[in-house]
Design brief:
The protein has one helix spanning 15-43. It is an all-alpha fold.
């Protein structure tokens, strides 16, 4: 018998932390989107 467990939690960040998080995810998303076509070409 398989039992799945999950935890739900929320982080309350300061305004400065929110800015840094948004910048970090924005840069990550930009890099991923720019590299995706190159990776797809290499896979083919």
């Amino acid at each position: 018998m398989m039992i799945n467990k999950a935890f739900k939690f929320r982080l309350y960040s300061s305004d400065m932390q929110k800015i840094v998080i948004h910048k970090t995810f924005g840069c990550s998303r930009l890099l991923y989107n720019k590299m995706l076509p190159r990776v797809l070409i290499c896979v083919k």
